[in-house]
Amino acid sequence: MRPRLLALALLSLPACVPHVLPLLPEPAPVAVRADLPLDVVTKLAGAQDPLQIKGTSWQFSELEHAVARAVTTAAAPWAEAHRADRPGGWQIQVDLIKSDAEWVDGHARTSLGVRATLRAVTGRVYIGQNQMFCSTAGLAKSEQETRDVLWRCISGLGRSVTGWLDGVTP
Question: What pTM, to 2 d.p., does this model score?
Fold first, then answer.
């Protein structure tokens, strides 16, 4: 009887081990120009990286990098349009303050929150700060579809940061 229990335990072990997947799609969706007057810095401040998808053994890594990419991509036109306002460029510090994700009955749900702080690079002059949140849900029958749901939320955060920047007077 003992060998059977051991075999059963060994067979069920992979189901208990977290499966860590990269959140960033390959290749990068948009290349960022090296001369862009924008520096996006991310920091975990309450969010989890890797992000555990409750109800599964899946975890998605690189949450910080994914948010930085989304904010940089979305904010690039703003930074370019305001290049002359601050010759040294801009820095956006994005603190990831909230992360939650779950998978239930073929649906993925996620909610993320960030605090964005805008500074001028030269002199580290504080310009403003705001918080943005997103919540996204969708059908997800696979890890890839779950990643797509997460990306919709992350992309929404990038657009929210840009919407806030549009209202900031540099």
Answer: 0.84
